[in-house]
Amino acid sequence: MVQKNNTFTFGFIGTFSYWHGVEVLQELIVELTRTDKNVHFLMIGDGPLLAQLKIFIRAHRVPESAVTFTGIIAQEKAPDYLMRCDAFLCPTRSSADGVRFFGSPTKLFEYMSMARLIIASDIEQLSEVLYPAFKVSGVTEVVPLKVHNQVGLVVDPSDIQGFINACKLCLAMSHEDQSRMGNNARQKVLAHYTWKQHVQKIIEHAGL
User: Fold this and answer.
1) Contacts of 77 by beta carbon, 8 Å cutoff, 6+ apart
2) Which of 4, 131, 138, 166 could disulfide-link 119, Cβ–Cβ 3.0 to 4.6 Å?
3) Separation in Å, CA 97 to CA 24, 93, 101
4) pTM confidence score
């Protein structure tokens, strides 16, 4: 992994909005920086709730050195930023009006290609892409995980403590198991979710 000076970096890239779980992100940042001084958060992107996130963590006295906000970056530079992370966050939320969730998990494909740990919401397409995965909840015991074929960790989107526990499980994981899970994720995305494969599926579905 890419840990430097014992620092473990959690990353997020995307739009800071309701759908992408800003409430989860802010609680994660506050709790983990309070309990582990070697944790860092790399927040990439912009959005309507970014100001709220900054106000929240400032009000909870999170050290400025513990969080990096990049703002919007050029798309071609995204891989360079993502490579600085040890684990990625994707706390996508369910629809507020009860409508069944549907979304293209492009963010997950980007994360998986980096061969890093991934924590995501256990919901619809995200669960399918990150199968098999460790299911984590707010009552999950935080002990070192032994990775076999798992490609990530999934949590109920409303379970904030579950996301905190999932992050702590990543921190407790051996370097060997971190690498194994990251490689499992990369191999799955290469085997099933490249743009070439996606186009081929569209062609086959259209009967062309």
Assistant:
1) none
2) 166
3) 19, 11, 10
4) 0.91
